Every structure is written in C-alpha cells, then in structure tokens.
Amino acid sequence: MRPFPHKTWTERTMVRPSIPTPDTSDDQPASGATVQEAVGTVRLALDLAATAPTLAALYEEAVASLAATFDAARVIVFERDSEHTLRLAHDSAPTERGARDAERRALEVLVASALGAGRLATSSTDRDGQRVAWDVPSMPVDAAAALIPGPITPYGVIAVASRPGRAIDADGVVLLDGYAGALAFGIDRLRAADALETADAALRGAFDDAHIPMALTRLDGHLRRVNSACANMLGYSTDELYGMNIQNIVHQDDRSITADSSAALARGDIPLVEIECRMILRSGGTIRALVRMSLLGDPAGRPFGYLAQFMDLPDARPVDADPWSYGQDFRAMVESMPDIIARFDRDMRYVYVNPAIEQLTGIPRAAFIGRTHAELDLPETFAEQWRAHLANVLAEEREITAEVAYSSTPVDRTFLVRLTPEPGPTGEVETVLAVARDITDRRALAERLQFQALHDALTGLPNRTLMLDRLQHALARSRRHRQPVALLFLDLDNFKTVNDTLGHAAGDKLLVQVARRLERSVRSEDTVARFGGDEFAVLLPHIANAGSALEVAERIAQAISQPFEIGHNEAFVTTSIGVALSESPDDYVDELLHRADSAMYRAKSTTKNRFELYDAAMQAEASGRLQRVSDLRAATERNDFLLLYQPVIDLTTGRVAGVEALVRWRHPERGIVAPVEFMTLAEETSLIIPLGYWAIDAAARQERQWQAGSPGDSPVPVSVNLSARQFRHPGLVAEVRRTLDATGLNPALLSLEVAEQVVMTDSAVAATTLDSLKALGVGLCIDDFGTGSSSLRHLRRLPVDAIKIDRECLREIDRNADQAAITAAIIAMAKALGLRTIAEGVETPAQVARLRELGSDEAQGYVFSHPLPAEEITRLRDAHQG
Ligand code: C2E
Ligand code: MG
Ligand code: MG
C-alpha cells in the first residue's frame, strides 16, 4: 500500500512539490510544470495519500500542497461524507469585499471530481466573471458535487481558484486530475482502515429513519443521538432527548441492572446484553421494553459509548428475532449496495447475501444460501481466500480486513473485505458479517500513477529515479556480499542525425528499438533505464569483475551497431558506453554515477573505443577538465583571445586572395594556446557561442580597419570559422547581421566557413540556415571538405561559394596517384557546380605544383605563411600592393 516506503510521514510533511510557479505577470498559466515535475508532484501526492495518518491530515496537507503547486489564491476541499462536512480552505487572498470581488471576476475555477473517480470536470469562468457560478467559500457541498458530470459519486470536490489574470492550463488540469486520483487512493486507504468511518455515512441515515427505536450514548450514559422511532416511543422530540442521561428514562427499579450491564460491556466481559426494563415516557407512564445494548469503540479499540436498541414488549416479538428483519429500509439499502454484503454461519455457509454477488459471479444468489464457498462454482483462489479469512475471524473472534482477488476470465477484480464476527445472546460468535468492496479501479489507478512516476513514458523502461533506487539497493547488497556492482552509461552518438533527417517520430521509434535491444543484451536481473534524450543506463547488480562488465558493454555496442529499420528507412547509430564498477565497500550512488559518466565522456571523445572503463587516470582527467572549464569560462568573460590571420593565395596570380581568421587563447600561464587544446571543451560547454561571436565581430572590425587603411586597393576578404554548435545556434543570423550593421562592413568581404560534416549532418536545416546567411550577402565556404560524405545532390542545393579541401586529402598528392585522383575529382565537381576550391594545409612546393596542375583556384598553408597577427598581415598587404 505504501508506494514509497523510504519516506516517513514526518519527512513528507516538510516536502513541497518543486514545481516552479510563474511570476506574477499577466496571462501566465498557473502551472508551469514539465511532465517530469508533474509526475513528481503526483508522486508526492501518492506518497501523501499512502502515509497520511488521518483524513483530516490528508486534506490539510493536500490543500497546502495544491496551493503551493498552483500558486493558487484559494484551494478548497469539499468533502461529502464526513460527519461535519469538512471544508478546508487555503486562503491567501485578501478578504475585504472590494478585493474579493476583483479577485472573483478573474477567477478560474477547476472542479475535480476525481476525488471520487479519478475523473475531472472543469468549470472555468470568463475573465469578466460572467460565468462565475458561485461564491467559492460558501458553496454548498452538494452544489459543488453537482457540477461533476456523469454517473459517478464523488467523495467531494477540489476547487482551485487561481490568482487574478492567471489561467490553469491543460497541463495543470492533468496534474490536478492525477492529484485527485491520488487523494481518492488515500481516502480509500484511510477509510478501509477506519471501519466505523466507512459504515458511518451509509448508516447514519438508516439510523435516523429506522423503525427500530435506537439511541447512541456516551460511556457516562448521556444520549448523543436518538432516532425518531425512539423519540416517538418515549413521546419526546429528538432534541429534547439529546443530552439527557439514559438512566433518567429508565425506571428507578431497573437502573441498577442497566448500570451493571453497561459496566460489564465496558470491561469487555461480554460483547452484547439484552435486558428487560421499564422505560419512563414523557407523559409519565411506563412501557416494558427489551433493550439490546452493545459497546461502541473507535478503530483503535477504545470504547466511546453504547448503542441501545429497544423493542417494546407489549407489542411482543420473540426475544431472539433478528432486529435487521424489522427495518425494511435497512434491507432495501443493503440489497441495493454495490458492495457485496453477506452473512455466514459458524460453518462458513452463506446465511444471507445481497444481489451484488450475482453481478460478480453470474450465479443466482439463492444458490449461495446454505452453501460454503467450496460448494459453489467459484474461482479456486477466491473460494480459498474466503475460507481462510472466515476461519481466521471465527478463531480469533475479532474483525479483520483483507484483500481478496476474484479472477476468472474475463473478470479480474480485487476486493477489500471486512469480516465482523457477530456474537449471539450467549456472547459466542454465531455469525460473521462480510462487506466486500471492489477496489480494482482504485488500485489500478494507484498502480498506474506509480508506474508512470517511475518509468519512461516512451520506452516503458525504468526512469532515472527507479534506476537510482535499484542502484542504491544493489550497492547495499554488494557491500554485504563483497561483490562489485557495474553501472554502464550509454549515449547514442548520432541520434540527432536520425531525428533531424527522418523526423522526431522516427527518432522516437529508434529509441524504443534501442530500448528493446538493450533489454535483450542483458540478463533479467539487470536493469536497463532511460535517463532522458538518447541517454541510457544499465545496472549489472551481480558482476564478477571488470572484464565481464566490458563484455556486456561490447555486446551492447554490437547490438546497437546493427541497422535499425524505421518505416522504410534504415538508420545506423553507434553508442558510447562508460563502464564503472563499485570498488570499495563504501562506494555510493553519486560516485558510481559520476565515474560511469566520465568514462562515457571519454568513450565519446576518443573515437577508437566505443566503450571505456573508468579508472584512476580518468579521475585525474575529470578533475583536470573541471579546472580547464573554469579557466576557459573566465577567459571567455575576460576575452582573453586573439585572432591570427592566415593568408590564402590565388594559385594563378600568386596574390593574397583572402585571409582566414584563426583564434588563439592568450593563456596567463601557458602563453598562446591553439584551438585543438580548447575547441572541443568550448563546444561541449557552449562557451563557443560567446567566443565565436567575439571572433566574428573582431574579424569584421579588423577587415573594416584594413579597408579604411588602404581604400584604393583591391579588397582581401576575411573568413571566419563556425563550429557545429554555432551553426545551429538560433541567434546566428541575427548576430552576423548585427555585426555587419555595427561595423558597416561590406558583407561580400566577410566569409563564413562551416565544416562539411556539420553541413551534411543537418542538411535540410543547414540549407535553411545557409540561405538566411547568404541573404545577408556574406560569402559561404565548406571547410574540411573531403572528410565527410557530401552527395552532389546535397551540394547543389546549398548556396555556398567555395569549398576548402581538407589537408588530409592533399598530404601526399604529389606522390600518391589515388589522392591526386580524388582531389582532381573534387575540383572537377566543384567547378561543375560553380564553386571555388581552396586547398588547405599545403606545406610543400611539390604540393603547390600538383594543385596548380589539378586546377585548384587557391591554397593556404605553411608553405606560404603560418597564421599571422593582424599587424603582419597589414604589412604584408602593404608590401604586396605597393
Ligand atoms: P580549420 O578551419 O580547418 O583551420 C585550418 C587549420 O590548419 C588551422 O589550425 C591552421 O593553423 C592550420 N594550418 C594552416 N596551414 C597549415 C599547414 O600547412 N600545415 C598544418 N599542419 N596546419 C596548417 P588552427 O588555427 O589550430 O585551428 C584549428 C581549427 O580550429 C580550425 O580548423 C577551426 O576549425 C577551428 N577554429 C579556429 N579558429 C576558430 C574560430 O574563430 N571559430 C571557430 N568556431 N573555430 C575556429
Ligand atoms: Mg577553416
Ligand atoms: Mg579546415
């Protein structure tokens, strides 16, 4: 029953859902919850429902927590059935009349019927208040419940009044629905535990209207509740009798016997007494009555009063008659109950059963009478559970509550059964009264909510929360058995490509297939979880050593590398896996997570291995990385960078055709640091975004300065590199435009370089971005060409001006016929598409000669010049032009 056993009630009361509430600006939804947060809130609600000690506490906490979740002006829980209709309100709104009116006008009210059935009705009002149907604080319970459509009988209503100008959005409604479902679960639990409470509401009306005169007294004999039959019998009104002591209406001579009997009841000597005594009427006369008295106790067994039933004897019915048979309305009520109500004799035979049993079993109820469960054609476990529980009640002579399952295809229901022993006149148990309530739906809802809170909706795999819980248990066990636990972290390497090229629906399908393959790659006791996005984790709770963990990793990598069939497409993905083993008895969850994560990170950055085992060296690297990140961040804030410019030479004229801006980090200790040392880190931490914009801006300014310095000369455009992340950054186009505006630079003098792999990864998206950049008038160049796998078809669609042939393609161009052929093909293709070709990383005159032969337009490389500071470029240009 307790879904989250690790929390206690007291701990829980201190926890509030952590859903961020929006700020107070207008038209904000009143819940800004992400799915995960919503699940967290429902989880807390379930937790609350499972642990609240009393109904009052449950409501009070629920109201406070709903108020916090929705940042509500007012939350009210109307409960329908409690003795004093409970109306709890969290009222944080101003109360004076004017303010309240204003608030009312903007009320959005949600009514959740789900307190009863997990269903929700919404009654929202217009902003102008036209449809505000009631004054929330004084709305009668039945009126509120009447707003709930459908044939359900709710426990009550939750009303959440938002603040003026806020609306409760669709997510909020779902959240509220889940919350109400959880509350219903809690109410059921508490009611099942509280037998009196359950009977209370149903019986109160029957008590008041019953034909049998009945009275409830306190232990001291004061009348607390008297029905009208009793008042009529005595000639009083019910009000007059209220508060009188029962002894005052018992004939003087009979007072001692009633006093003795009640004392015996209170001591627990006997469960029930029947005494004959004379009652004094209001008129002063007396009647003879048979009084049947029993002790009333609370669920904890503490007695709090007596129930007295009277039969006036002149009217004479046999003493042993069953009082139930007198009350036709009792009978009618019991017969129409959806609960199964039955009475059994000491031999466990049915003495009575209401029609509800027919609906469940399809057996006419007459067939039940006089039979035991075993003698009826009932599902075996159902019959056996009943037998065991009945035997238990008869042996122990105390009430029990238990769950009983009825399953016979297609019916599969769960009942909460309360069995009450009924003593006869001698005090011995003669019969057992059973009330069985169908709790299947409630249970299913509770289970579903719990499942959702702990599983990933897409793949059905355990989520992070559940995984961490299992990891914790596994670690505890491994401490006892001194056997390591292994944790694998997985990240798909090119999931984004699939998502971007085939669409999100395909991406989802791929993730589901990956989940299934992962499950198939491990044993049943291992846990596969999805941590979000394309991240998965695998827990191997029993593993011999690192070698076997790596074997599993290998198997997984293998499984994932097989092609995936998605619709009519085939998709290929690979995965990087970090493997970590618990090393010492006192390894904790966080540590293992951290290690698996850094190992995964390492697997990702080295292309050699698809998986990597965490080791001490990695530890050092991890902390070193942390230091480097913080250094780089500081450098970005201080702009500790400079640009060098490498000339690009026109191979026909030998002139400088352009320059490429290349960034350097001016490190306080290490001096000038090249991009290889920090680009990956900048890319991973997103620091490339500010750094990259700085570079574009600085290069544009420099170019403008060169222009201003020698206005007459033929201009030498500057090119700047864009990383993958920059290229995908949504602010890119605007930023480039801003730079052009700010510097006043002729856009034709600025060129942007994007690596072939980046362009081809997102080819559709890339084309759009390139189009927008092209529209600004800047030049575009595909960098590192020859390293990726561009198709001609794609290239044609892209609005680029030039390609830069990667250094790797040219290294042996003067000696290697294959390389020369490839380069020749690239150049020919570029020419066909009207693109300029630039050979990069050219180091020898032989390479230059060969490139000329192959017809490359331009080249850059150490053979001409290393990247140079801006001033040297200025000097070079001056020399050149002059
Ligand atoms: P890239 O755009 O392909 O730049 C060419 C790289 O080759 C530069 O390295 C350059 O110094 C080097 N290089 C030039 N000639 C030769 C040669 O003859 N032999 C050899 N071995 N290398 C040569 P660098 O400056 O270290 O830059 C490396 C990469 O860092 C660049 O590759 C570019 O992708 C990136 N990068 C540099 N500056 C920036 C920038 O401002 N923004 C962005 N996003 N990336 C940049
Ligand atoms: Mg470049
Ligand atoms: Mg390059």
Q: Can you give keywords for this protein?
A:
single chain, 882 residues, alpha+beta, 5-stranded antiparallel beta sheet, binds ligand C2E, binds magnesium ion
Can you give a write-up of this model?
43% of the residues lie in helices and 22% in strands. It is an alpha+beta fold and 882 residues long. It has an eight-stranded mixed β-barrel, surrounded by four helices. Helix 3 packs antiparallel against helix 7 and helix 17 packs antiparallel against helix 18. It is elongated, with a radius of gyration of 41 Å. The chain binds ligand C2E and magnesium ion (2 copies). The site of one magnesium ion (MG) has 4 residues, from loops.
The helix-and-strand class reads alpha+beta
Q: Which compounds are bound in this model?
A: ligand C2E, magnesium ion
Strand order of the largest sheet: 23-24-26-27-28-29-30-31
Helix content: 40-55%
- Shape label: elongated
**Low-confidence stretches at least 5 residues in length (pLDDT < 50)?**
1-33, 81-114, 116-139, 195-199, 315-329
- Strand residue percentage: 15-25%
Topology:
Layout: H1 9-13, H2 35-51, H3 55-70, E1 74-79, E2 87-91, H4 97-105, E3 109-112, H5 114-117, E4 121-122, H6 141-146, E5 156-161, H7 170-193, H8 195-209, E6 214-218, E7 223-226, H9 228-234, H10 238-241, H11 255-267, E8 272-280, E9 286-297, E10 303-312, H12 328-336, E11 340-345, E12 350-353, H13 356-361, H14 380-396, E13 400-408, E14 411-423, E15 429-438, H15 440-454, H16 464-481, E16 486-492, H17 495-502, H18 504-521, E17 527-532, E18 535-540, H19 546-561, E19 564-566, E20 569-571, E21 575-581, H20 589-605, E22 611-613, H21 616-638, E23 641-650, E24 656-667, E25 671-673, H22 679-685, H23 688-709, E26 718-722, H24 724-728, H25 732-743, E27 750-755, H26 756-761, H27 763-775, E28 779-785, H28 792-797, E29 802-805, H29 807-810, H30 817-832, E30 836-840, H31 845-854, E31 858-860, E32 868-869, H32 870-881
Parallel strand pairs: 21-22, 24-26, 26-27, 27-28, 28-29, 29-30, 30-31
Antiparallel strand pairs: 1-2, 1-5, 3-4, 3-5, 6-7, 6-10, 8-9, 9-10, 11-12, 11-15, 13-14, 14-15, 16-18, 16-21, 17-18, 19-20, 23-24, 23-31, 23-32, 24-25
Helix pairs in contact: 2-3, 2-7, 2-15, 3-7, 7-15, 17-18, 18-19, 23-25
Bound molecules: ligand C2E and magnesium ion (2 copies).
